């Protein structure tokens, strides 16, 4: 360690910014997959077929009752193994090495999907059912009804929850540093340990997260104004 | 699934210590954090502008950065600078300042203060001003208006949200295992390292957390029902978990 004592913020600026990019990448990917999982979960919860409903309720209730860090560690160990035994069951021989990046994204998306399920369920239920009946009366197909009526009508209700979840997700990405994945906070930890300026580097890491969350707030504010266009202002 | 290690008193004591620490940590930072939250809310509404801006900036910073980063910042960052203060090492505070529990409680208290402060601030602003004016007209002092009218009415409005905040607090406790404090996750890690069983200890504490979440939700529901002026149970929104 003595060798690196003279290193400072400048030497680590590159790797830390690189880490920030990785953090954004996994957050964006996990968010996209989480959105899909959330839509699937919400449709399952709202379906009339009992087993499907129960699966979705179990998924969102269990995931939301267990601490994120614990889930991330559990899935980090269990995920690749479950994936490989699933492949085995399908008749695929040999195991696939799953990279840290894929694990991090998968785990965060799985957690995100559970919370997203609740957000979407609530905002779909808030659509006046007359609007859906009108779509049926006009002979919309199910897909057309979903794309033209359900999505635009639910977005204004869902967006505040979605923006909250995005902020939580950015902050949750720091948790994957615990399983040794190299993102912003992991790099900051290495920088802090090798230069011994813990205060400085953790403050820098915090500041970068703050920039990301404040920036996202601005973008989500714009998106919310866009999806609320034509509605009376609250 | 092999749970035979559960019979060993050695592992039981780890789990028990982690469980008790978790409860104490949630209790301490929940109570202190809610106190801090009321202070933050009041300062943002009533304090002179510079102070209000300062509090606003502080809570925004806390709410915009990961809890894990804050924990490391206080434990390693601030904790690393402390021995540099002359005389502190010899003082009576040193044993406290070396204890990870102190940093965990500090970080969580500030976090609860910032998140719940925002909730309480919103609720305080939505108490009709006529009620506060009526209190003043009846001759209550400003302080009496605050703690007989304003706070109870505000807390009435945001109690379900505060329930959610308390559950979030409970669920952030495993983070302290990263600063070498004995909690349930730390106990599970020790058991995993010694028995080479990966899933069983983790699944066990996942179960414990689910149970704790349910108990905490139930306890908060009781408080919600007992709170003066609570709405009738039947019309209450059913809310098992936050989110």
From TrEMBL, chain A:
| Record-linked InterPro entries | AA_ABC_transptr_permease_3TM (IPR010065), ABC_transp_permease_HisMQ (IPR051613), MetI-like (IPR000515), MetI-like_sf (IPR035906)
Q: Which organism is it from?
A: Modicisalibacter muralis
Lineage of producing organism: Bacteria, Pseudomonadati, Pseudomonadota, Gammaproteobacteria, Oceanospirillales
Please name the Pfam families in this protein's record: BPD_transp_1 (PF00528)
Q: Which GO biological process annotations does it have?
A: amino acid transport
- Please state which protein family the record places this protein in: Belongs to the binding-protein-dependent transport system permease family. HisMQ subfamily.
Report whether Transport shows up as a keyword of the record. yes
Query: Predominant location of this chain?
Result: membrane
The ABC transmembrane type-1 domain covers: 20-220
Q: Where in the cell is it found?
A: Cell inner membrane; Cell membrane
Any GO molecular function: transmembrane transporter activity
* Membrane-related topology note: Multi-pass membrane protein
Q: Can you supply one Gene Ontology CC term for this chain's record?
A: ATP-binding cassette (ABC) transporter complex
What PROSITE patterns does the database record attribute to this sequence? ABC_TM1
Provide the alphabetized UniProt keywords.
Answer: Amino-acid transport, Cell inner membrane, Cell membrane, Membrane, Transmembrane, Transmembrane helix, Transport
What's this protein's name?
A: Amino acid ABC transporter membrane protein 1, PAAT family (TC 3.A.1.3.-)
Membrane among keywords: yes
- Annotated TM spans: 20-44, 56-78, 90-111, 149-169, 199-220
UniProtKB/TrEMBL annotation, chain B:
Task: Spell out the CDD domains in the cross-references.
Answer: TM_PBP2
Query: Which family, according to UniProt?
Result: Belongs to the binding-protein-dependent transport system permease family. HisMQ subfamily.
- Name the principal localization, coarsely classed: membrane
Coiled-coil segments: none
GO MF annotations, alphabetized:
transmembrane transporter activity
* Localization per Swiss-Prot or TrEMBL: Cell inner membrane; Cell membrane
Where does this protein come from, organism-wise? Modicisalibacter muralis
Q: Which domain of life is it from?
A: Bacteria
Under the heading PROSITE patterns, the entry gives: ABC_TM1 (PS50928)
**What is the protein's membrane topology class?**
Multi-pass membrane protein
The record, for InterPro entries, names: AA_ABC_transptr_permease_3TM (IPR010065), ArtM/GltK/GlnP/TcyL/YhdX-like (IPR043429), MetI-like (IPR000515), MetI-like_sf (IPR035906)
Domain ABC transmembrane type-1, which positions?
19-220
Q: Could you list this entry's UniProt keywords, alphabetically sorted.
A: Amino-acid transport, Cell inner membrane, Cell membrane, Membrane, Transmembrane, Transmembrane helix, Transport
Q: Give Gene Ontology CC terms.
A: ATP-binding cassette (ABC) transporter complex
The family database entries (PANTHER family) matched by this protein are listed as: ARGININE ABC TRANSPORTER PERMEASE PROTEIN ARTM, MEMBRANE COMPONENT OF AMINO ACID ABC TRANSPORTER
Q: Name one GO biological process term.
A: amino acid transport
Membrane-spanning segments? 20-43, 64-82, 102-120, 203-223
Organism taxonomic ancestry: Bacteria, Pseudomonadati, Pseudomonadota, Gammaproteobacteria, Oceanospirillales
Protein name as catalogued: Arginine ABC transporter permease protein ArtM
């Amino acid at each position: 360690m003595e060798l690196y004592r003279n290193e400072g913020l400048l030497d680590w600026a590159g790797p830390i910014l690189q880490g920030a990019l990785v953090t954004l990448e996994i957050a964006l990917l996990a968010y996209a997959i989480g959105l899909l999982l959330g839509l699937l979960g919400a449709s399952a919860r709202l379906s009339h077929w009992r087993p499907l409903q129960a699966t979705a309720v179990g998924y969102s209730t269990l995931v939301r009752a267990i601490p994120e860090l614990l889930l991330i560690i559990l899935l980090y160990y269990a995920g690749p193994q479950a994936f490989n035994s699933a492949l085995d069951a399908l008749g695929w021989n040999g195991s696939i090495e799953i990279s840290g990046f894929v694990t991090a994204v998968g785990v965060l998306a799985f957690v995100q999907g559970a919370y997203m399920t609740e957000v979407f369920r609530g905002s779909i239920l808030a659509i006046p059912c007359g609007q859906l009946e009108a779509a049926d009366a006009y002979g919309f197909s199910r897909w057309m009804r979903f794309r033209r009526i359900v999505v635009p009508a639910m977005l204004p209700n869902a967006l505040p929850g979605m923006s909250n979840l995005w902020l939580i997700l950015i902050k949750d990405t720091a948790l994957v540093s615990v399983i040794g994945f190299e993102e912003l906070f992991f790099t900051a930890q290495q920088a802090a340990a090798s230069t011994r300026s813990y205060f400085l580097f953790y403050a820098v890491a915090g500041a970068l997260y703050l920039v990301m969350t404040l920036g996202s707030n601005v973008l989500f504010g714009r998106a919310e104004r866009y999806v609320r266009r034509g509605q009376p202002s609250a | 699934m092999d749970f035979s290690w559960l019979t060993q008193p050695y592992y039981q004591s780890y789990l028990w210590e982690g469980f008790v620490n978790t409860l104490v940590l949630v209790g301490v930072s929940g109570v202190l954090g809610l106190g801090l939250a009321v202070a933050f809310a009041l300062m943002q509404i009533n304090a002179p502008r510079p102070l209000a801006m300062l509090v606003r900036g502080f809570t925004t910073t806390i709410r915009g950065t990961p809890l894990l980063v804050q924990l490391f910042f206080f434990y390693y960052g601030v904790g690393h600078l402390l021995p540099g203060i002359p005389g502190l090492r010899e003082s009576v505070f040193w044993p406290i300042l070396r204890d990870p529990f102190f940093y965990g409680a500090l970080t969580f208290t500030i976090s609860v203060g910032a998140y719940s402060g925002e909730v309480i601030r919103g609720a305080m602003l939505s108490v009709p001003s006529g009620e506060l004016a009526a209190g003043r007209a009846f001759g209550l002092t400003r302080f009496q208006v605050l703690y007989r009218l304003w706070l109870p009415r505000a807390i009435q409005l945001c109690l379900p949200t505060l329930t959610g905040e308390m559950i979030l607090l409970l669920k952030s406790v495993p983070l302290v295992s990263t600063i070498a404090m004995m909690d349930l996750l730390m106990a599970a890690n020790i058991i995993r390292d010694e028995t080479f069983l990966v899933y069983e200890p983790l699944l066990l504490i996942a179960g414990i957390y689910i149970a704790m979440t349910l108990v905490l939700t139930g306890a908060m529901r009781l408080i919600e029902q007992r709170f003066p002026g609570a709405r009738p149970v039947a019309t209450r929104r059913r809310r098992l978990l936050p989110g």
